[in-house]
Amino acid sequence: MNFDDEDRLELQFLAGGNIVEHAPVFSPDGRFMFVRCLTKVQVYATGTGELTRVLDEATAPLISLELDLKQPDLLIGCTSAGELFRWNWRAGVLKKTVSLTLSNGETILTCNLMNLYKSGDTACAFVTAKGKAGEQVNWFVVNTSTGEKIDVNCGLKLKLRAPLVDVGKGQFKNIILAQGFYIYFVNYENWTFCRYKSAKQHTITCVKMSPCEMVAATADSEGQIFVWRDFEKQDTMTNTLFHWHHTEVTSIAFSPSGVSIYSGGHECVLVKWTVASPGYRKYLPRMSSVIRHIVVSDDNENVLVCTDDNAIQLISGSECIIKSTVQHFTYETKDKTGQSKFPLGLRLNPRTNTLVLNGRSGHLQFYSAYTKSLLYNLRVVDTNVHNEEANHIIYKTRITQAAFNINWMATGEVYNDLVNFAEVRLKFWHYNERLQSYILNTEIDLPHEKGFKAIIFSNQFQVDNLRCATAGEDNVIKVWGLTNSENIYKRGTMWSCLAQTNYRNLPIGSLCFSQDGSLLAVGYGNTLALYDARNPRLPLQTLSCPPGLDGVISKAQLRLAQTPLNGARKEFTQQRQQLWALLKALLNSNDENLIQQAKDLIVRPPAKSRLVSQPENSCKETVFKCIMKMPELGLHQKLQLLRRFGVECSVPHAHRHRLLQHLQQRAVIPQATKLRLRKLDFRLHRLHPRHRYKAKQRLSHVNNRRQKFENLVPQDVMNLFSVLKLDESSKPKKEKKVKKVKSNLNDSSKANMKAKKIPVNAAPLQGLAQISHVQFGAGDQAHLVAVCTESRVLIWNLLTLRLQAGLKLSVRQLAFDPLTNLMAVITKNDELHVFQPNVPLPLYQRSNLPKTHGLAWLPRRQPRQSSINVDWQAQSTLLMLTHSQEIAYLALPGQSPSDDAPTPISFSHPAATDIILKHATFGIHVIKPQQVSGESLEKNGPLIVGREEHSAVNAFVNLSAHTMPAMSLICGEFVKSLLIPADSTSRHSSSAAKDAALTNGGTVNGNGVTHRDSDEEHDDEELGEEARSSLDTRKTLQEQNEKLVDLPLEGATDLQGLDNRLRTITALRSKLRI
């Protein structure tokens, strides 16, 4: 099946996108802000941070976005391809598109509107563009109404770098440009310019013009800010230094009045300066990340600060406090370590089906794909965050592994600066219902050495007899379980190590629990070991396949060109032809002479390289004396020089043994030293954790020095044996008593005696396949285990202990869906393959995918009623975390994982509410277990705010704000739930009618969603007739009840008659209820 021809799915993006790459823009009244995200413009409400509108008509990335000066409702954006878009942002309508006239191959770098109008209804723009590589940057002025260039008489010529540009739009019409350490000031009224250099020729990082004065500000890479005045002439120019930042300044901004300056950098501190007094400043410290952009509103009430973790924070301009934050997807800041930003990959929290991945430094972020909103960031690493420095690499504690259960979370964090011993911590977190967050329960220091390979729970949804298995870089597996706490100050449960094991000290590739948690499968090298999860000390079974099946080739392949290549030398061509003929003859015959000839070719002695400027034999003695007289050289250096000149030394027999023993001790590490280091390593586990780190660090330093020396031994020390004639070939051969060989030996036996021995290097050892992923099946396929090696996917059957199937795939990442038993793998060639372990035939294939960090299956809230052979994403959606820090998925055009939200919920029947409510956007946050007695029939009715028995409303009101979805998603459903139905008599329907109302006359699937077929119309008509007859009966009973209630009492009170009337009324009311 050709999937590429029939594939209708498109790669779409669910989350991500950098909203802080460019500075946002305020609306004139400050109520809205416009954010650029590649080709889209997102409009947010400043007060609430809610996304109100998206303008997505652009076809290329937007490089500028500004409001027109005379028409504030007009938003003008320019793309890198030279297209101008004009939106009416209040109506969300694209008014006009204009294409700029560019030369061939030019790309727009910057586009800034000016306070200049030329025969058009919109302002002109100052544009910089660059053509091919190595060309200078060009600039020109364009009319944004027509897209034509305007002729300007100015001799300004720019350099090769991309410039930093800002345009003054007030009374003083000036442009400031910066390229490297050059600063240009241009007056766009008379088109005169001046050029300056920065102090000490430091690189300029940002520029800004004052909105109401002829004042400009520049900042450089050394943290210095200069305020420029009277810059039109060099004689009158003055500048003032503002210096507090110790690293480069990333952004500066003037207040609307020009009295204050805001600045930010890598210190994560917002600084507010007073222009008149450089020594007076205010600080807003501990921002979430590095500050990238600062924007001040026109009324000076709000300040937008864009941080490097993809967040926009709204700050009060007068009080310098954070009012709100707009954040969709958290990014890890760029560092110089070269390590992956997402070592955790993409994980799924089974409690709420939220995506979990690495966020800002030391945090995990929980993202809801249903509501497309970031729920919260959880701080896992309890250490200070170090700021980046210019000439240093700052290593931070990284969360490398995590596992999730419905009530528990386990995280593994590692700090490794490649110098000291690695700090490793394992933490277990318990979910607190009251706080709606995770609380640290247990912290273990140094559970493994050097780091983690994997962390996994035995079951995602069960809490009883829960186990957690961890695998480390030290090739040890530990199983953890819940025990009673031994702390007298804090009673409860804690996690402790129940058992640990390893297998022949082989490296661990992956591990996985079976569906019931009884078996633990571990991949050691090329061996799959199965353990009893209750006692994993010895493996129950070990499985390994032959080398030919696990992807490792057990034979060599030699390919020679049969036709001569162009430019090949004749002697090489002749040797290739001789070797090819010899191999053909060797394959077609079994001649021992040919085999012996091939062995001689393979074991040919290496060619000796000529020594440069070798002296003659008569001069070697002079060279030897000259070298030995050099006191500044050591013995090792002298011997190296002698070896270089080809001089061999003879050592007296009296000293030869001592010198040979000395060199052997230096060249080869004795076995006693290895045993001593191993014993010290085992004894370190007895130490207290306070002293264990220091001891481990010292021992690691010793091992590193030994390793470095071992690497130098074959290069330097071993060569001295040949110089001093101390190797085995130079030793005199001992005379041995050789028995006389019988003369009746045949020729073949003599040839075998003289045959050369093939060294080990000529026939290297066979490599072993390394297991990278292990995954159990689920349901009726729980007996199958998928094992991934470098070039194979092997399916083992644990019932027969045999290899069931194999796929030729080089798996890099794997994700398993327990609902459908589907396995999705990403190969090293960025190809997607989806299959089931029992039938290893691909259900779906796709190539040319972007690079990914991880995969995850997201269950649908409303599964589709179709087979996985027709729609393999009917039950769950496959999500991918790309290298561009975006979450992508495959779907038909216009579809989204959030499109399967159920219809609004009616609370008129509480029994149906508990079933349907938990599958809705509003219901999953407020549903509580309720016990409704069958006798409380009078309390049935619409949900009324204020009743204490309705815990759903109380839970919704008392819900934590950071765990709630957007109000626009739940407000409509919540208001509709409070409405009283028009027919109030429906509450008195019969139990059969209640069941019919619950299911809407149809069947209910596992998610509480009704499905009605077209052949049920006759049943609806019968139900309608029954409802009419029951309604007539109710009306008759009500009339009789009213007559009995309104009858007057005659004369004296008749107790017997009154009792009979009460019985009759009670019977009629009970019938009315039924």
From TrEMBL:
<dbReference type="GO" id="GO:0006364">
    <property type="term" value="P:rRNA processing"/>
</dbReference>
<keyword id="KW-0690">Ribosome biogenesis</keyword>
<dbReference type="InterPro" id="IPR011047">
    <property type="entry name" value="Quinoprotein_ADH-like_sf"/>
</dbReference>
<dbReference type="InterPro" id="IPR001680">
    <property type="entry name" value="WD40_rpt"/>
</dbReference>
<feature type="domain" description="WD repeat-containing protein 75 second beta-propeller">
    <location>
        <begin position="769"/>
        <end position="885"/>
    </location>
</feature>
<dbReference type="InterPro" id="IPR053826">
    <property type="entry name" value="WDR75"/>
</dbReference>
<keyword id="KW-0698">rRNA processing</keyword>
<keyword id="KW-0853">WD repeat</keyword>
<keyword id="KW-0677">Repeat</keyword>
<dbReference type="GO" id="GO:0045943">
    <property type="term" value="P:positive regulation of transcription by RNA polymerase I"/>
</dbReference>
<keyword id="KW-0804">Transcription</keyword>
<feature type="compositionally biased region" description="Basic and acidic residues">
    <location>
        <begin position="1025"/>
        <end position="1035"/>
    </location>
</feature>
<feature type="compositionally biased region" description="Low complexity">
    <location>
        <begin position="999"/>
        <end position="1009"/>
    </location>
</feature>
<dbReference type="GO" id="GO:2000234">
    <property type="term" value="P:positive regulation of rRNA processing"/>
</dbReference>
<protein>
    <submittedName>
        <fullName>Uncharacterized protein, isoform A</fullName>
    </submittedName>
</protein>
<dbReference type="InterPro" id="IPR057644">
    <property type="entry name" value="Beta-prop_WDR75_2nd"/>
</dbReference>
<dbReference type="GO" id="GO:0003723">
    <property type="term" value="F:RNA binding"/>
</dbReference>
<dbReference type="InterPro" id="IPR036322">
    <property type="entry name" value="WD40_repeat_dom_sf"/>
</dbReference>
<feature type="domain" description="WD repeat-containing protein 75 second beta-propeller">
    <location>
        <begin position="348"/>
        <end position="548"/>
    </location>
</feature>
<dbReference type="Pfam" id="PF23869">
    <property type="entry name" value="Beta-prop_WDR75_1st"/>
</dbReference>
<keyword id="KW-0539">Nucleus</keyword>
<dbReference type="InterPro" id="IPR015943">
    <property type="entry name" value="WD40/YVTN_repeat-like_dom_sf"/>
</dbReference>
<feature type="region of interest" description="Disordered">
    <location>
        <begin position="990"/>
        <end position="1035"/>
    </location>
</feature>
<dbReference type="GO" id="GO:0032040">
    <property type="term" value="C:small-subunit processome"/>
</dbReference>
<dbReference type="Pfam" id="PF23769">
    <property type="entry name" value="Beta-prop_WDR75_2nd"/>
</dbReference>
